[in-house]
Amino acid sequence: MAPTPERYAKIRRVLSKRQPTLTVLMDEVNKPHNLSAIVRTCDAVGVLEAHAVPPKHGTLAAFEGHTYDATSGSAHKWVRVNPHADAVGAVRALQSRGFQVLATHLSQRSVDYRDLDYTRPTCVLLGAEKWGVSDEAADAADANIVIPMYGMVQSLNVSVAAASILFEAGRQRLAAGMYGTPQLSPQALEALAFEWAYP
Ligand code: SAM
Question: Which residues bind S-adenosyl-L-methionine per the record (predicted)?
Answer without folding.
Answer: 104, 127-131, 147, 156
